[in-house]
Structure prediction request, 213 residues.
Amino acid sequence: MFKKSLMALAIMASAVTTANASTVFSDNFDSNALGLGTNLNPVVPASWSVNNGTVDIIGNPNSFDFLPGNGRYIDLDGSSNDAGVLSRAFNLSSGVNYLANFYLAGSHRGTSESGTVTFGTSSLNYSFIAYNSLNPSPQHSNTGFTLYSLLFTPTSSGNYNLTFANNGNDNVGALLDNVTVTATPIPAAIWLFGSALAGLVGVSRRKASGLAA
Prediction:
């Protein structure tokens, strides 16, 4: 019974946390003009910055639309033989969980692509290998948009970057779409869970003491 109560409390705390989540940022890149990055005229999506190279904005209509039905999206290795680092700065608060969700896909041009996504001090690596019909990998160049998540909890308030960096400089990169950042203040949920847990522990001890007597 005690274990079941603990599980119920954990589910309740998770529900409170989820209910309190608010959207900080969302971008599906559909409002951006289509464009291929060059060193002379870098393509930069609105509210983002691109350093050390370029990216491409591709998709609907008829601009290297490898994944129809997804509007416009980013090729993380722009058409300049120099993959850019796509980034956006956020002013984040200490004591808040920030979750970045984003969708990555293979290049859909038969190339192996890898890179790193960072959010504050959190990071993850992605990899899509060249497609091989005889030995297909779960993550290959023909893989469609797949959800990835990266959690970051600042220890102090300040400006932090969400960045996408594709390796290689061959004008072909992994594809990025639907980036969202949500915030979840955690003290209330932790207090709720901790208080209820302490109460359950006290009840359990009293029951155990009564049985021992």
Notes: The chain has two helices and eleven strands. The longest helix spans residues 187-212. Helices lie at 2-19, 187-212. Residues 2-18 have pLDDT under 50 and may be disordered.
